[in-house]
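Hello everyone,

My group is preparing for a crystallization screen and wants a predicted model to guide construct design. The compound we'll soak is S-adenosylmethionine. Before spending weeks at the bench, it would help to have a computed complex in hand. I've included the protein sequence and the ligand's SMILES below. Output in structure-token form would be ideal because that's what our pipeline reads.
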Amino acid sequence: MAENRPRCAAEHALAGWHKGATPRDTHRVALPEDSYYRRDLALVHHRGFGFHARACAPGILALLEPVRSREGIVLELGCGSGLLTRELTAAGHRVIATDASPAMLELARSYAPAAEDIRRLVLPGDPLPPADAVVSVGHVLSYLPDEPAIGQALTAIARALRPGGLFAIDICDLEYGQARRDAPNVGLVNDDWAIITQFSLPEPSRFIRQITTFVLNDDGSWRRDDERHHNVLTGTARVPALLAAEGIHVQVASAFGTEQLPAGLRVLIGRRTA
Ligand SMILES: C[S@@+](CC[C@H](N)C(=O)[O-])C[C@H]1O[C@@H](n2cnc3c(N)ncnc32)[C@H](O)[C@@H]1O
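Reply:
Good plan to model first. Here are the tokens for the complex, ready for your pipeline.
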């Protein structure tokens, strides 16, 4: 019977990741094609929100230097429009860039054409190709539906790492919500796009962005779109114990290098030790 079968170390760790939750390391979460970052928000992100990937790039490149010198493969998760991908390939890395959003991938194909491959990969269920490094910026794992799904994705990342491999990713801690408890709405206006974001924190571990975009059409009219982004905020201090079972040593840090990251955003740097 299923409940009597022996459980591997990773399953024990996953079970403890979220009290009362069932580990779902074989469960595939099918996202509809247009769940996050449809055409207009993908474009607005690319044009107006590149500062985060660019700020993270120097620290990530320094961490990845040993991987570059042995011409290892860097797997990027949630590459978006290719903002970090392009920094990686410009520095000489071999990159497989992946994302769930077809609109983001289309932008990435033209913005970061030097990547070895740019393909759709939906976390946490799609298989990860083996890699010498896994990188991800823009709290991609925080988009997963719940804590077990985040645990499943972290375990998949650990298992994709070749001997000597490392990962460097950012993720929203519970502190991310505390820091934005009373965050005011934000509006940005540009010549050909505008964005309004409303924030809410219905629970300490759930952060919601209600996003409205306006993008200028060729005929001078404006089109509107609305997306609702749900982020799960997690206790990142638990990650080292979770991934120790996978032979990965994890350091929880406040930055990849010397950059200043938003309050409550944490960096996980993991190295395969076994
Ligand atoms: C805030 S954006 C960051 C994009 C890019 N890394 C950057 O920094 O510009 C988050 C990205 O995560 C992707 N994403 C969300 N859920 C995902 C999932 N389940 N699997 C893979 N990618 C996902 C989105 O499509 C989006 O491109």
